[in-house]
DNA sequence: AAAACTCGCAACCGCCTAAAT
DNA sequence: TATTTAGGCGGTTGCGAGTTT
């Protein structure tokens, strides 16, 4: 039995326990104790540290808040993308999902899912676990996130770091948000010989970033023949092409789950800077919501696909 | 200005399982 | 082998802050 529901009571449990938010003093006490004795043995820690908390409470406080490598702040587009992808594979296995997002806790991911993703599902009057909702995520949100991911990460990185097509581990180290990127990942280099290379290509490399940790097992490839990047991200057959020379506006075109998705990247603005990214705006776009509504209320038939190349 | 409402998140609860006895 | 203990996990709750009416 865990201490929380045991019918017997020890000396420690008879003691009045603190509940609710942790105080600064409690945090200091816990941090100091762990610094001296290490983590683990949570019930012993709770008894010996002088904290009037349960072992469970101490563990949770440490893992979700005090641990030095806990990252705070808005989830980046690639983190959101990864959560969506991993949740579609594993469901509510929050701790498992969290293992692929270094510094993020299962609690944080769970909260994100419940407050953001499930909220969207509720507004759309569909079950968040329904195939219809998953399709909507795959067809609309993931491309949008990939668009953000592509513009904020790949482009910024390319613009700032590379004037040739070589990539070193040092460059990986200097990437923004590098801590969640697996440095061992390969880079996808576009065909520099393509006649459809973007304008002013000398100022940016054709190096695309590695996929985040956790996507490493998903095959992806460079593609000279279609000019752009073809991510075969999702085992369901979802794929996208990143067309570099199709204009300057971002345009999310409704597509079927099996069709390629095209969008344009804007090299001309600061949109590529992920440091100012506010994750919220990805989830509050009226236009996107309208599209989703029409998608989930409609039809299982395929949404018309617009081919930018035509 | 204040009440009502919404949202995000930290913390708790209860169940489960592996390890220890 | 049975029982107890500790830790981990997912679901849920409650509160404070921000926003809307």
Structure description:
It is a single chain. The protein is an alpha+beta fold. It has two domains: 15-66, Orthogonal Bundle (Arc Repressor Mutant, subunit A), CATH 1.10.10.60; 72-310, no CATH class. It is built from ten helices and six strands; from the N terminus they run αααααααααββββββα. The protein has helices at residues 11-14, 24-37, 42-48, 55-66, 77-90, 94-98, 106-123, 131-161, 169-173, 286-297; strands at residues 188-189, 207-208, 221-223, 228-231, 240-243, 261-264. The strands form two sheets. Strands 3-4-5-6 form a four-stranded mixed beta sheet, with no helix packed on it. A hairpin with a 4-residue loop joins strand 3 (221-223) and strand 4 (228-231). Helix 3 crosses helix 4 (55-66) and helix 5 (77-90) packs antiparallel against helix 8 (131-161). The protein is elongated. Mean pLDDT is 55; it is low at 1-14, 153-287 and 299-310. The structure holds a DNA duplex (21 and 21 nucleotides). It is found in: Nucleus. It holds the Pfam family Myb_DNA-binding.
